[in-house]
Design goal:
This protein is α+β, with helices and mostly antiparallel strands. The chain has 3 domains: 162 residues, no CATH class; 92 residues, Helix Hairpins; 148 residues, Heat Shock Protein 90 (2-Layer Sandwich), CATH 3.30.565.10. The strands form 4 sheets. Strands 1-7-6-3-2 form a 5-stranded antiparallel β-sheet. Strands 9-11-12-14-13 form a 5-stranded mixed β-sheet. The chain has a 3-stranded antiparallel β-sheet with strand order 8-10-15. Strand 13 and strand 14 form a beta hairpin. The longest helix has 52 residues. The protein is rod-shaped, with a radius of gyration of 47 Å.
Length: 454
C-alpha cells in the first residue's frame, strides 16, 4: 500500500502527526508559561530579600564608601545606585509597599513613573512551530529609597536574563521529534488499516473463486464483524450456486429420457428432409441443456485442485483434437507447473480450440512463459469479428453469427465458460483480431513454478 493522501494509511498518518504536533505545541506553550510564572514568583521574592539586605548593609557603611559598595554588589535583576532623583513619585506599587513594610519607618520608599528599558523586552521561547514572544509579568519597576541619613538610592528591578537556545540543537531536536512522530504514526496507521486491506483482497479473491477458504475471525471487534459478514455472504452465494447447479443437473437428467424417446420416434419419420431437421433441432436442445449445465459448473467447480504440468495438459488436449479430425497444431513449451483443476482447464482449452476450428477452419496453438505468467495463444484463419464485439462475445448466449441456427452459431456459452474457468484459476481469456487476418484467443494463467522437465 502506497503512502499517499488518497489512501487511508496516508490520511490516518497525517491526522496522527498533525494531532501529536499540535498537542505537543500546546503543551509546550502551557508548560513554558507555567515555568515563567513560577520563575516570576521566585524572582519577586529573591529581589525583595536582596533589596532589603543591601539597603540594611548600606545603612551601616560610611557615606563615602556606599557608591563603591553598591557597584560591587549590583547583580542581574536588581540594580542599586546613589543618584540625585528629580522625578516625582507616583502611587505606591505593591512592591514598594512591601519593601517599605520590610525596611521600617527609618526608610522612605517611593515608586517612580519611569521603568527600565528591559521591562519591555520580549522573551523568545522555542516551540515546534518556531519561537514566540512572552512578556515578563514579574516585578519590573524603579523605586526611590531615602536612607535615614538622607541619601537617595535608586532601585531598578529588571527581568532576569533568559538563555537563548542554540539554533543547531533546537533544530536537531525538532527534526528528531518530527521524524519519530511520522514513523510512529505511519506504523500505527499501517497496523490499523492492514485488516481492511486484507478484507478487500479477500473480497477480490472471492470474485475470482467463490470456493476460497473462509476468513479467520480475529482482530478487533469491527474487523471480526466484517469478516463474519463476508463469510456469511460467501456461504449464501455458494449455496445459491449449488442449488442452481443441482437444479440444472436435475433438469438435464430428467430431460434425457424424454429426449431419447423423442429421438427414437424421430428415426421412424419417413421424410428424410423433415427427419434431419427435427433431429438437428433435438441435438441443439440437448447441446443447449448440457452447455447450460457446464456454464453453471464453471462458476462453482467442485473438482479439487492439484499440481499439474501445463505443457502436458495442453499437448494432450491438442493431440485428442487432432485424432478426432480437427486441424490443430501445437508449438512451444512453458515448462510451468500450475495449481488448478485439470478437467476444468481441459474444458476451457477444448472450448477455445473448438471455437477456432468452427469459425476459423484451423487452430494453431502456441504456449510460452513470460515472468510469472503463461500465455496460451490459439490462432485461426477466420475473418475475425468487429472490435466492438470482442468483449460482448463473452456474455452468456451472445452469438456474433446472426442466424438462428444453433449448428452454425452455437449456443453462445463456449467463451463464457472458458473465461469463467480461467477466472477460477486467477487468469483471463482475451480475444484480438490479427493484422493479417484471423483471430487470436489468449488464455493467461499464473505460473506456480517449474514443471521440472525441460
Amino acid at each position: 500500500m502506497g503512502f499517499t493522501f488518497d489512501t487511508m494509511v496516508g490520511r490516518v498518518t497525517a491526522l496522527l502527526v498533525a494531532g501529536v504536533v499540535a498537542s505537543a505545541t500546546v503543551t509546550q506553550v502551557i508548560a513554558e508559561a507555567e515555568r515563567l510564572r513560577a520563575a516570576e514568583e521566585a524572582r519577586n521574592v529573591l529581589v525583595l530579600n536582596r533589596s532589603v539586605q543591601v539597603l540594611n548593609d548600606v545603612k551601616d557603611i560610611q557615606p563615602d564608601q556606599r557608591e563603591a559598595f553598591l557597584a560591587a554588589t549590583n547583580k542581574q535583576g536588581a540594580r542599586l545606585s546613589l543618584e540625585k532623583i528629580s522625578e516625582p513619585p507616583v502611587e505606591p506599587t505593591a512592591y514598594a509597599r512591601t519593601l517599605q513594610a520590610r525596611m521600617g519607618e527609618g526608610f522612605k520608599v517611593r515608586a517612580l513613573a519611569s521603568r527600565a528599558p528591559e521591562c519591555d523586552r520580549k522573551l523568545l521561547q522555542p516551540t515546534i512551530f518556531g519561537r514566540y514572544n512572552l512578556r515578563w509579568e514579574g516585578i519590573c519597576e524603579n523605586l526611590s529609597v531615602i536612607m535615614p541619613d538622607g541619601d537617595r538610592i535608586r532601585i531598578s528591578v529588571v527581568p532576569p536574563g533568559m538563555p537563548r537556545p542554540e539554533n543547531a540543537n533546537y533544530l536537531l531536536g525538532i527534526l528528531l521529534f518530527l521524524i519519530s512522530t511520522v514513523v510512529l504514526a505511519y506504523w500505527i496507521a499501517r497496523m490499523t488499516v492492514r485488516p481492511l486491506d486484507d478484507l478487500a483482497n479477500a473480497a477480490l479473491r472471492l470474485g475470482k473463486d467463490i470456493n476460497q477458504a473462509p476468513l479467520p475471525l480475529d482482530g478487533a471487534a469491527e474487523i471480526r464483524k466484517a469478516s463474519g459478514a463476508l463469510n456469511t455472504m460467501q456461504a449464501m452465494i455458494r449455496e445459491y450456486i449449488r442449488q442452481r447447479t443441482v437444479m440444472l443437473a436435475a433438469i438435464t437428467h430428467d430431460l434425457q429420457t424424454p429426449l431419447t424417446r423423442m429421438r427414437f420416434r424421430l428415426e421412424k419419420v419417413e421424410n428424410e428432409e423433415l427427419k434431419e431437421q427435427l433431429l438437428g433441432d433435438l441435438a441443439a436442445v440437448l447441446s443447449m441443456v448440457r452447455e447450460g449445465l457446464d456454464l453453471a459448473r464453471s462458476t462453482d467447480s467442485v473438482e479439487p485442485t492439484q499440481a499439474m504440468d501445463l505443457d502436458s495438459l495442453l499437448h494432450s488436449v491438442c493431440h485428442d483434437a487432432s485424432e478426432s479430425g480437427q486441424p490443430v497444431t501445437v508449438q512451444g513449451h512453458s515448462y510451468s507447473a500450475l495449481i488448478g483443476r485439470p478437467q476444468a482447464l481441459r474444458r476451457c482449452l477444448n472450448n477455445l480450440i473448438d471455437n477456432a476450428v468452427k469459425y476459423g477452419q484451423e487452430a494453431v496453438v502456441t504456449i510460452e512463459r513470460s515472468g510469472n505468467q503463461v500465455f496460451v495463444r490459439i490462432r485461426d484463419c477466420g475473418p475475425g469479428i468487429d472490435e466492438a464485439e470482442l468483449e460482448r462475445v463473452f456474455d452468456p448466449f451472445y452469438r456474433v453469427e446472426s442466424s438462428r441456427s444453433r449448428k452454425s452459431g452455437g449456443t453462445g456459452l463456449g467463451l463464457t465458460i472458458a473465461r469463467n474457468i480461467a477466472a477460477q484459476h486467477n487468469g483471463n481469456v482475451t480475444l484480438a483480431n490479427l493484422p493479417g487476418g484471423g483471430m487470436e484467443a489468449t488464455l493467461i494463467l499464473p505460473a506456480s513454478g517449474s514443471s521440472g522437465w525441460q
